[in-house]
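Entry 14. Ran structure prediction on the chain below.
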Amino acid sequence: MELKRIIEALLFASNKAMSVKQLQQVFPELEQPEPADIEAAVELLVDDYAHRAIELKKVASGYRFQVKADVSPWVGRLFEEKPPKYSRALLETLAIIAYRQPVTRGDIEDIRGVSVSSNIIKTLLEREWVRVVAHKEIPGRPALFGTTKQFLDYFNLAALSELPTLQEMADLNSLAEHDQHLLQVNSEQQEANPQQSTNNEASTEAVETQTGIVGAKSAIG
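Output, structure tokens:
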């Protein structure tokens, strides 16, 4: 029970996810618990928070506390800074790297059928979502790009195996097209009745994000 309380405090106080090894190293060398004991304490904490607004989530870098998705819209209102919006081209590039890694810039351009802006690669590198994992042994030795733990953490994934399948992406694409149709209908209704109350901005942003992420699906497939 004492170990569980300590682990809870450590994860609560940390500003980033912590692995079992990192949690173990916080303890004095002669008092370090076994990894299995730490994992058991973590599982108990997961159960403790199962029905609360906060959850203990495993991501690529380890474990972290975070608010659950169903209450995140309210929590988001506490912060004035809005999350950045990314272009469809950037999201398509990221999707290709995630599903086809390691890939060169030339590979990405062949799949998308258009050139890749240097700013897109620069942004992905600066966000630490992708990194150079090697260089292809061909003339010019172009860089091979792959995703990072930060990419997995940001998208709430523990491993690449948790990425949606291409079929799931196709289903998401259909949903996005359906949402776009609803937004178009709603817009036409607004023009016909200006007094009707709307709040389309958030919905539009969600559709744009969905469409951008799944935009590379046909090319990847």
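The radius of gyration is 22 Å. Will compare against last week's run tomorrow.
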